[in-house]
Design brief:
Layout (H helix, E strand, L loop, with lengths): L1 H11 L2 E7 L6 H15 L3 E7 L6 H6 L5 E4 L6 H11 L4 E4 L11 H10 L4 E5 L7 H18 L11 E4 H5 L11 H7 L4 E5 L16 H18 L4 H29 L7 H33 L15
Bound molecules: uridine-5'-diphosphate and magnesium ion (MG).
Length: 322
C-alpha cells in the first residue's frame, strides 16, 4: 500500500528544484521566495529541495523556517558536487532544476531554460554566465580552463561551472558524481550521449557571504580534466593508451641499446660508461611496466563494467516498435 502511494506521488511532481547550500545565511529567505514566485507561474506541481552541506552558521535554522520545502541535511560538509548528487538522488520530478544558493543565479531564467529543453528536444540545458560577476582572476582562470577543455575533450559548452541548469530525469538517473566533479557533469553526460544545449543567463554579484572556492580549483580542475579526457577516450579500453605508451617506450629503449652497442663496437666506449645503455635499460623497463599496467587496468574495467550499476556501457534514447 505504502509503495503504491509513493509511486502515485512520484508521477505527479513535474519539477524538482535542487539547491546546494553551504554557509548561506542571509540568502535563504529571499532565495526561497524568488524560486517559488517563478515556479508558481509555471502552474505545475513542483518540489524544492535544499541540501544543507554541513553549514556552520545559521543556515539550517533559516532553512527550517521555510514552508513547503524539503531539506536534506548532510552530516558534514562534502562539497558542492556531493550536495548536488544528494539532491539528484532525492528528486522525484520529471525535470530537475539546479541552481546555486547564493542568489548569483537568477531563478527568473528558469522558464527560458525549460522552454529550450522542451522545444529543442534536449536532455540538458545549461546556463552560460556570459557576463560573470566574479573576481577578475577567477574569470581569467575560467577562460584558460575552457581553452584546455576544448583542446583535450573538445567540450563545446562555454560555462561548465554554472549550476543553473535543467535536466530531464533520464539524464541524471545514472550519473554518479562527487569530489568536485560537478564541473564535468556536462562532459560526462555528453560522453553518455545526452543532448546538451546552453543559454545565456543572468549572473548577479554575491551580496551575502563569501565564495567557497578560490584559486585552489585551478590544479584540481586540471587533474579532473585529465581524468575526463582519459574517460572520454580510453574508458572501455585503457590498454590502448597504456599499451601504446609502453610499446613506444620499449622501442625507444631498444634503439638506445642498439646505439650503445654500436658505440661499444666501433668507438670502444664501454657499456658501463655509456648513458645510452642506462637510458635504454630504463625505457625498456618502463615500457614493460606500462604495458602490464594497461592489461591490469583493462581487466579491472571489464570487471567494473560488468558489476557496477551506475556505469552503464550505453544508454538507449528510445525503443521504437512498429
Ligand atoms: N556549496 C556547497 N558546498 C560547498 C561549497 C559550496 O553546497 O562545499 C554551495 C554554495 O552554498 C552555493 C554553491 O554551492 O550555493 C556555489 O558555491 P559558491 O557561490 O561559493 O561558488 P562560486 O559561485 O564562487 O563558484
Ligand atoms: Mg556563487
Amino acid at each position: 500500500m505504502e509503495t503504491k502511494k509513493r509511486k502515485l506521488e512520484k508521477t505527479e511532481i513535474e519539477y524538482s528544484v535542487i539547491v546546494p547550500i553551504y554557509n548561506e545565511e542571509g540568502n535563504i529567505e529571499r532565495l526561497d521566495s524568488e524560486i517559488k514566485e517563478v515556479l508558481k507561474e509555471l502552474k505545475k506541481p513542483f518540489e524544492i529541495i535544499y541540501i544543507n552541506d554541513g553549514s556552520k552558521d545559521n543556515t539550517l535554522s533559516e532553512l527550517k523556517k521555510l514552508k513547503a520545502v524539503k531539506i536534506v541535511d548532510l552530516n558534514r560538509n562534502y562539497g558542492q558536487a556531493t550536495a548536488l548528487d544528494a539532491g539528484f538522488k532525492e528528486a522525484i520530478g520529471e525535470i530537475i532544476i539546479s541552481l546555486d544558493g547564493d542568489l548569483q543565479n537568477d531563478p527568473k531564467d528558469i522558464p527560458m531554460l525549460l522552454e529550450a529543453l522542451e522545444k529543442e528536444n534536449l536532455d540538458v540545458v545549461c546556463g552560460w554566465r556570459k557576463d560573470r560577476k566574479d573576481k577578475k582572476g577567477i574569470k581569467i582562470l575560467t577562460k584558460t580552463g575552457r581553452f584546455l577543455r576544448q583542446l583535450l575533450i573538445k567540450d563545446p559548452v562555454h560555462d561548465t561551472g554554472c549550476t543553473l541548469r535543467v535536466y530531464k530525469k533520464e539524464a541524471i538517473k545514472n550519473l554518479d558524481i562527487g569530489g568536485e566533479m560537478h564541473r564535468y557533469i556536462l562532459a560526462l553526460l555528453r560522453w553518455k550521449g545526452f543532448r546538451i544545449g546552453e543559454i545565456v543567463v543572468n549572473h548577479r554579484p554575491r551580496e551575502n557571504g563569501i565564495s567557497k572556492y578560490g584559486y585552489s580549483k585551478l590544479i584540481k580542475g586540471f587533474i579532473d580534466l585529465l581524468y575526463i579526457w582519459f574517460l572520454d577516450k580510453y574508458y572501455q579500453r585503457p590498454l590502448h593508451i597504456f599499451g601504446l605508451v609502453g610499446i613506444i617506450s620499449f622501442f625507444l629503449g631498444i634503439l638506445s641499446e642498439i646505439w650503445a652497442f654500436i658505440t661499444r663496437i666501433f668507438f670502444g666506449l664501454s657499456l658501463n660508461r655509456s648513458g645510452w645503455f642506462y637510458i635504454g635499460f630504463f625505457l625498456m623497463i618502463m615500457g614493460i611496466t606500462f604495458f602490464a599496467f594497461g592489461i591490469v587496468l583493462d581487466l579491472l574495467m571489464k570487471i567494473h563494467l560488468n558489476t557496477s550499476p551506475y556505469e552503464m556501457r550505453y544508454n538507449i534514447r528510445e525503443i521504437i516498435e512498429k
